[in-house]
Amino acid sequence: MNKDKEHHFVELLEKHQNIIHKVCRLYTYNYDTHNDLFQEITIQLWRAYPKFRGDSKFSTWMYRVGLNTAITLYRKSKRRIKTQDFSDVQFRISSEEYDDTEEQQLKLLYTAVRQLNDIEKALVFLYLENKNYREISETMGISEVNARVKMNRIKTKLRTILNP
Amino acid sequence: MDELELLKNDWQKDNANYPKLTYDEIYKMLLKKSSSIVKWIFIISILEFIFWTLISFFLEDANFNKKFQEYEAKNIMLPIMLFGYIIIVYFLVKFFMNYKTISVTDNAKILMENILKTRRTVKQYVAVNLGFIVISTVVMLSIQFNRDQQMISIIDNASANGELFKFYSITIIITLISLGAAVGVLLLFYYLIYGILLKRLNNNYEELKKLEV
Q1: Contacts of A6 in chain B (CB under 8 A)
Q2: Residue B140's pLDDT is what?
Q3: Class assignment of domain A83-162?
Q4: Helices (H), chain B
């Protein structure tokens, strides 16, 4: 691949790097693994770049490669949420005095999202990124109806985690 | 308000909080090596091919060629050997073709399917090899029992002493133990490979498949 293409790729990635950071935020638990996953996604993007055709947006293409790397290719073991951690979080949520501030609720929401499995997180990620169900279904390889059904189930699941 | 909508609002305005990597930092990452699962699957698969091919060659070399020339059993052994080579070529070609279809730009489900398909090819190769070893062992033993002069005299001796049953029992037990050990190696392989490498992928694939029911 020529230098121009390399330069162009790095520029595009620099511009859209937040997409990768956001994937890392959902799938990693500390600074080191965040960087590690960021690097792996970058490598995978770079390898796939020769096949990238301008007919899809670079950012759209990044979502797919980023998520695929996070849920399928990434090998480093992450700290899995164990049952113990899970009940611990639940305990804390239920025993804390109810705090209506938005910030408090957001904190709990992020904690709850982290407890979802890899596939659920991927759907939530695309949803948070304002992708419609057609795009979600195309990225995940499931039907649009199933994406919708699953998303509703995830919402219920999150509600249960937040209000046990 | 919907919980996820609240999260979405925050998620989208959160941009400023992420680290900002410079052009040079990103450029340096391009030069780093991938540690993706596909790379490891490729390495492990190639090692398996080498391992099982060596085992087949070793068996052929040790047992078939040397002694079996004496038995004049070439018309039986030659097709078996040929079949062995065809197996290697067939599975290697299939493996590389599957491997080439793995693309990170496919959707998540297809990507997982292609990775698992590549693995399955290697698994089939190992299973066929194991079957091959079992069949070869049985064929080998039966030829040996019929044509090896030493073996025939041992059998005659055992028969004369009334220990024919004992002789056959021991032979069968030893054969079973050896084949059991081969199966054990296979299971260990898969316990390690699937346990460590593919557990997460399998779980995620199952989760995606569940959505389609």
Answers
A1: 27, 30
A2: 77
A3: mainly alpha
A4: 3-13, 23-30, 37-59, 66-71, 74-101, 108-147, 149-160, 164-192, 199-211
